[in-house]
Amino acid sequence: MPQLAKSTQTSLSDINMVPFIDVVLVLLIIFMITAPILQSGIEVDLPKTHTVKEILEQRLVVTIDKSQRIYLGNDPVNIHQLPERIRKQLKHPQDAIFLRCDETVPFGSFATVVDSLRVAGFSNVSIVTEPISERRR
């Protein structure tokens, strides 16, 4: 009786990494595109100045948009509730509060928000601006 040659079937034990790498690269690209947008969801054209200090630490941000709506972080807030909401989120009253304001907002609205913060006892209010881009001739 002739013996039949036994064919050994090897099972595929390696994991195919190509689809995994494709998915990871797509997610990386998505996060790279959306990360600058997540900085602040409120669209504000900041005033431009020569002196700009880079902010490295995470701070509490109050924003006034073009329609003169006030936001604490990304949440809309009434100006009368602003000091109370800041006290809930701020660890120490002497910590800095960053104020972002659209350059088209009238100074009276800006001054009202600053006054509301100062009356509530927050004296360390920093104004956020953008650097002036120098045009090369």
Structure in a nutshell:
This protein has 137 residues and is an alpha/beta fold. The longest helix is centred in the first third of the chain and has 17 residues, at 18-34.
Provide the fold topology:
Elements: H1 18-34, E1 48-49, E2 60-64, E3 70-72, E4 75-76, H2 82-89, E5 97-101, H3 107-119, E6 125-127, E7 130-131
Parallel strand pairs: 1-7, 2-5, 5-6
Antiparallel strand pairs: 2-3, 3-4
Polypeptide structure, described:
- The structure is a single chain.
- A hairpin with a 5-residue loop joins strand 2 and strand 3 (70-72).
- The chain has a domain at 41-131: 2-Layer Sandwich (Nucleotidyltransferase, domain 5).
- The protein has helices at 18-34, 82-89, 107-119; strands spanning 48-49, 60-64, 70-72, 75-76, 97-101, 125-127, 130-131.
- Helix content is 28%, strand content 16%.
- The longest helix has 17 residues, at 18-34.
- The strands form 2 sheets. A 5-stranded mixed sheet has the order 4-3-2-5-6, with helices on one face. A two-stranded parallel sheet has the order 1-7.
- The chain is of the alpha/beta class.
- The mean pLDDT is 80.
Which key terms come to mind for this protein?
single chain; 16% strand; 137 residues; alpha/beta; Nucleotidyltransferase, domain 5; five-stranded mixed β-sheet; 3 helices; elongated; two-stranded parallel sheet
